[in-house]
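Give me the fold.
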Amino acid sequence: MKRIFLLNVILIFSLITCNNTENDNRDISAPRNKAVPFISIKTEKKIVDDPKVVAVLKIERNDSLLLETNIGIEIRGAISQFEDKKSYGFEIRDVNDSLSNKSLLGLPKNDDWILYGPMSEKSLIKNVLTYALSNQMGRYASRTQFVELEINGNYKGLYVLMEKMKQNKHRIAIKKLDKEDNSPEKISGGYILKIDKTVGNNKDAYNYTEQNSFTSHYDTKGQLSNKSKIHYLFDYPKAKNITPQQKAYISQYIHDFEKTIASNATQDYAKYMDTDSFVDYFILTEFIQNNDGYRISNYLQKDRDKKMAMGPIWDCDLAYGPEYTFCDGMSKDAWVFRYNQYCGNDDWLVPFWWEKLLQDPAFKNKVNLRWKSLRKSVLSDENVLKTIDGLTKYLHENNLVDRNYERWSEKKKETNFKERHLKHIQHIKAWVKQHSSWIDREIEKI
């Protein structure tokens, strides 16, 4: 309940204080390092949540123009879209207004991209750090680049250029599934599902329909129910493109998977799921204590002739021990898969099958062994702190913290931006060491 109250307060405060920042510029005294990619966007219309508006994007570095292209751009995010510093989604278009695949700053070609603007996430690194750790674990997560952003001459501060989660050989590498692929040989994949709000705008976040989703047959305790809060959204193929046959296939696949777990048939669930991907997703979600990790922004993928896999991990700005109250007990060491025990009145809850999986000795043993292995490598204190230090050093040496905080600081005469930023970084570092040590002690007791 506290988390719901907090989000409502944030939303109301943002609506009250939010200004039209399209023309709210500031002179930035901290010098710009031209080695950092600088993205400028020009558009004649105000950027809104939907639809995308036409714009021109330029990327410069070291006084060289790396790219100039037409784009369609919109605001993205739920609560974050009401903050002054917005995040944006954009698609690259050619001169004929058709989608165009391009490589941005060395990232693999695609037409769909994200400019994430950390605002309430004061460390500025949580998503970048988590995606880096996931990729180090061998689990694809969005590749990222720190950039600076300007829109219509208005400096917006530090942003993260990110890959949007899409079916693609360089991103979520599953088979392409066209409308014609309804035969037994092709209908098994590929699919991407999301457990999430229906759209970023909270007003329409509950708009689950037969067109865009299907609903679990089970409640959060694993009991049959026609009032389940767990909904699976069609992400790929998109709701407007997926065929009735494909809907029937993937929904039945999930229902069979859930039925098997609900019936405690622990010997059979592995027929439906790529167990190792579930283990890794569980470990990383718990390692960072991502309270959104199982219930929203949660991707599942099903490739052709393969089992369902978890991931990629996504949207981790509320992770790493939030520096505010997060439901009763969730601000201290706690298992995120038991979120329902702490925040049971939330509108989005954890599916029952995580609790069931953690009751299975075979699954728990895999988790335990994988955790111990990762603690000697990717998730060791040494590697995680080294990764954090590397990101922090880049931000500080390139004046990105000073320039970003100066742009968005409420105190116009404040100058100790790096010191303030380091307090948030120190919180993450101390929390990671403490929380991972707690998992070391508790993981065999789940």
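The first strand starts at residue 38 and ends at 42.
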